[in-house]
Prior knowledge:
Blueprint lengths: L1 H16 E3 L13 E5 L1 H10 L4 H7 L3 E4 L2 E6 L20 H4 L5 H4 L2 H10 L8 E3 H9 L8
Antiparallel strand pairs: 1-5, 2-4, 3-4
Helix pairs in contact: 1-6, 2-3
The structure holds iron/sulfur cluster (2 copies).
The site of one iron/sulfur cluster has 11 residues, from loops.
Amino acid sequence: MIGILRIMFRSLWGLRRGIAFRCQQCGGCCLWPGSVYFTPDELSRAASACGLSIPEFVARYRLRRLGQDEWELVAARGCPLLDPENRCSIYQARPLQCASYPFWRSKTKNATARREFIRECPGSRQGPWFNTGEIERKISSDPRNNTF
Ligand code: SF4
Ligand code: SF4
């Protein structure tokens, strides 16, 4: 009962003041249709984690070059880098976009965004509490977090 009340309090308070988070490795956020973006360094690390050269990685996962410093993996039906147990197969080498979730501007910018995050991510009902200052510091650690 106390656990349920704590979850309810965190959820309601979180809409205004912050979020709780500890990834439960359910793979849910990797199953959504969308895009995963890689810098050249991230691309190199991801390819290496797969035991592939960069051209092989680009060809296998059909990455699109968006510019000098950005590649896009279009995950129309979830990310192809998930393994059969819905775990990230390049977890230690995953790009910033994945590593910094949910500390993105789009997920934390207001109560509506935080409500959506709480609804969609089981990790929002677990783990340590991050207040707005801590969220802001995490987002500010890399300007790209403002774009996700
Ligand atoms: S949906 Fe949340 S708990 Fe599940 S893998 Fe993504 S971040 Fe982790
Ligand atoms: S690279 Fe890994 S963490 Fe990122 S979306 Fe794909 S499976 Fe998920």
